[in-house]
Amino acid sequence: MIRVFAFAMALMGTSAVAAPLLILVSIDGARWDYPELHGAPFLQELSAAGTRVERLTPSFPTKTFPNHYTLVTGMRPETHGIVQNRFFDPAFEAWFGIGAHPAAREGRWWGGEPIWLTAQRQGLRTACMFWPGSEADILGQHPDTYRRFDDRLTPADRVDQVLVWTALPTGERPHLITLYFDRVDSAGHDFGPTASETHDALIQIDAALARLRAGLRDQGLWDQTNLIVTADHGMTESDPADVAVLDELVPLDAVESVFSGAVGGLNVVRGDINTWVRQLDAHPHLHAYQREDVPERLHFSANPRIPDIVVIPDRGWHLSTRSWIDRDTTPSRGDHGYDPAEPDMGALFIAHGPSISPGRRFPPADNIHVYNLLCDLLEITPGENEGDTRLREVLR
């Protein structure tokens, strides 16, 4: 009997070994059409062999931290609370920021339950090779293994770290790994989405992902790996001359700029909010709303971190102050943050692996549904979220 029990346990262990590995990759700023636009061979091959969502529609605002966290929680920014890359919380009386800002690593800012905590709560192991939120003690926990963001690490370096983790013994190997690349976004901002520099950045990451496949094949894991390659948002051309100057629209002492650029957020310091909204909205390339009047489809009203006035420029336009314009010596040629209905804001989404239907194509889908797909692939129960199961159709 003991021998039978031991054999049964061994079979269970073997089953755990055979369970597919899930690697979630983000190419920050990778627009939905980039593989073909820039001729990325690995991404095109992966797309042909796997499943492609025509365009993954980001949440508003179409910025990096809000949408990366939406991808892994299934919650919109107004719900999970990361409403911009930089914002003010009136309850904390403190600012949130990215990069070296300490708030990015404080769990109190991050609502919802990210996929790595959902997985760990149900007995799986996780590792994050960068991801917004992965350095914070969300709900008092971190991923089992994670690296602090370091933009000096090349795409190949990041892949090699992932391959170190996948080479671990079965009992130590993560079930879920995130992998983040930032260079395509940086190049898109500096030079524009169609520039040769953006092409070169994507091709470098494309080669790194081919390196990942080669490494997994050498480890005998490629056929067990479900790989999702996606992005937080797209990118559009911007002309530095297309700027609405805030000083010329409202008195600067009447409002505090919480964020500006491709999306504006202003808190009222003095005067009548309706007056300031009307004056901003009168600009031919701006659409201004009181927080509670932001169009419902954008889901950007129900959080006190959202400023009093939300300003949405037309695609390619910016809201800025004269002082910022005068000292901005390297204006960008590409940007994001605009209305998610703009096709250029759409993100890449490719899925490939033993659990994924081969050669399928699906219409555009909102990024709030990705979290539930991740849970399906890990065979775990999702936490509370705002998505549904429509992406389940990509499964075999």
Automatic annotation (TrEMBL):
Name by which UniProt lists this protein: Ectonucleotide pyrophosphatase/phosphodiesterase
Record-linked Gene3D superfamilies: 3.30.1360.180, Alkaline Phosphatase, subunit A
Domain of life: Bacteria
The UniProt record lists the keyword tRNA processing: no
Matches recorded under CDD domains: Enpp (cd16018)
Keywords: Signal
Transmembrane regions: none
Source species of the chain: Synoicihabitans lomoniglobus
MF terms (GO), sorted A to Z: hydrolase activity
Leader sequence segment: 1-18
InterPro entries listed in its UniProt record: Alkaline_phosphatase_core_sf, Phosphodiest/P_Trfase
